[in-house]
Write a structure and sequence with these properties.
The complex is a heterodimer of chains A (99) and B (344). Chain A is an all-alpha fold. Chain A has three helices and no strands. Chain B is an alpha/beta fold and 344 residues long. Chain B has a ten-stranded mixed sheet, with helices on one face. Chain B starts with a helix and ends with a helix. The chains are: A mainly alpha (99), B alpha/beta (344). Chains A and B meet through helix 1, helix 2 and helix 3 of A and helix 1, strand 2, strand 3, strand 4 and strand 5 of B.
């Protein structure tokens, strides 16, 4: 299918709808592929490449996308009606000399 | 799945930077069993001075992006060991960037939390790896669970913040997942990210850390069930391609955004993809190279992953969807260390 058509289709259907058409049962992915060479391993252990020397572990460092400014303001107004968002510009006191 | 592959290809072509990690320290106030490699109370690597990072931001990033569209993530180590974290946050906020951080919660006092909010903190993740026994065992500190829970209680009350709890699921936690989820719900947590340790390095020889293939499938089923219930937004982290579980256990289809929309500046100045990558896929160094030039002109190994089509990936029919998996699943020589799909 043409790429642009696919993108348009994804936009029209929404991602969840697009996904739901390709969901597979997990076991379905386990059908033996002819090209795969079975490797000896413990039944309950994943195959991992040996990595001598440097012990490493991967942790997940990302964070969730921030709440949008309008949503933040709305939430703050609901919880603290008299306050401003923490990093919003603070109101400047009027200079009496200017009057 | 083909549609998502095409969407990812379009993203690669554009490679618009939307997340920039700053690994500001490797120091840590804990010595966790699963993180024994890089982070130490004294890792022997100096923190990157704040002015060095700001210089890159001012001269190399800001001229090319809309700051409001680029999320800066302070990572470590434990970022709260830096006394100037609030100053760093203020400076980043002043330049128009949203910023977030990940913490173990040990040093997150009410005073510091308020200071970080005043400095513009927009998103925060707290690590909580289970109930008290499991968490303290992994973290190696009898107070770590209480501190993390206190931090979570502060955070969930703050409406201006995006937040989540991040759980490293070990074998001991598998039978307790439902009870733990209910505890998080009772504490007011609405977003929960789970990940598992794959058996590399220290974890490989520690059966208390890793989970078996069967437990991994149990974890996937648990997340899928929890998402369908809809009481808490549970998701599996962006660790690897999950075949039939894709779009069922997280909000998005699998993709590795490292080097595509995500860059990092490591503590030594190295420029790379995301900070989860431990192998040497560094594309430059801020002390030698111009960051933006590196971002625009290098990063070829991140954006064209055909080189990964070797070994176990050579004939795999899923390659077109997973593109060889995450960069963090590759060793220094590029070989695949682990495949989540095959595990399932």
């Amino acid at each position: 299918m043409n790429r642009k058509v696919k993108l348009a289709l994804a936009a029209l259907l929404g991602f969840s709808a697009a996904c739901s058409t390709v969901k597979q049962a997990p076991q379905a992915t386990k059908e033996p592929a002819a090209e795969e060479t079975p490797q000896p391993r413990d039944a309950d252990t994943a195959v991992v490449q040996e990595q001598p020397g440097r012990p490493r572990i991967v942790l997940m460092y990302g964070v969730r996308p921030p709440v949008s400014d309008s949503m933040r303001t709305k939430r703050l107004e609901q919880q603290r009606p008299d306050s401003l968002p923490p990093v919003a510009e603070q109101p400047v006191e009027e200079d009496p000399a200017a009057e | 799945m083909g549609i998502f592959s095409d969407l990812h290809a379009a993203k690669v072509e554009e490679h618009r930077l939307d997340t920039l990690f700053w690994e500001c320290t490797l120091r840590c106030n804990l010595s966790c069993r699963h993180c024994g490699s890089d982070c130490r109370v004294d890792p022997g690597v100096a923190d990157m001075p704040l002015p060095d990072f700001l210089k890159v931001l001012d001269e190399e990033v800001t001229p090319h992006v809309d700051p409001s569209q680029v999320l800066i993530i302070f990572s470590g180590g434990e970022v709260l060991v830096r006394d100037d974290l609030e100053e760093a946050g203020r400076e980043v906020t002043r330049r128009g960037y949203p910023w977030g951080m990940v913490t173990n919660g040990m040093a997150l006092t009410e005073r510091r939390f308020r200071g970080l909010l005043d400095a513009g903190l927009r998103s925060i993740s707290v690590s909580l790896d289970g109930f008290e026994d499991e968490h303290n065992y992994i973290r190696g500190n009898p107070h770590s669970y209480d501190r993390a829970l206190q931090a979570i209680r502060m955070i969930v009350r703050e409406p201006s913040l995006a937040s989540d709890v991040v759980t490293c699921v070990t074998g001991a936690m598998i039978p307790q997942l439902e009870a733990f989820r209910d505890m998080l719900l009772a504490e007011g947590v609405s977003h929960w990210r789970l990940f598992s340790i794959f058996p590399m390095g220290r974890a490989k020889h520690d059966p208390t850390l890793r989970i078996t293939d069967e437990q991994f499938r149990t974890l996937m089923e648990f997340i899928r069930r929890t998402r369908r219930e809809g009481r808490i937004d549970a998701s599996y982290a962006c660790e690897g391609f999950l075949g039939g579980y894709e779009a069922e256990v997280r909000d998005h289809f699998y993709e590795c955004a490292a080097g595509v929309t995500v860059a990092s500046i490591r503590v030594d100045g190295a420029i790379s993809g995301c900070t989860s990558i431990r192998a040497n896929f560094h594309q430059g160094n801020i002390y030698r190279d111009r960051f933006w030039e590196v971002w625009e002109r290098r990063f070829a190994p991140f954006r064209d992953r055909e080189w990964m089509r070797t070994g176990a990936c050579a004939d795999c029919r899923m390659f077109r969807y997973c593109q060889g998996g995450g960069m963090h699943l590759r060793d220094d020589d590029g070989s695949l260390l682990y495949c989540h799909y095959k595990r399932l």
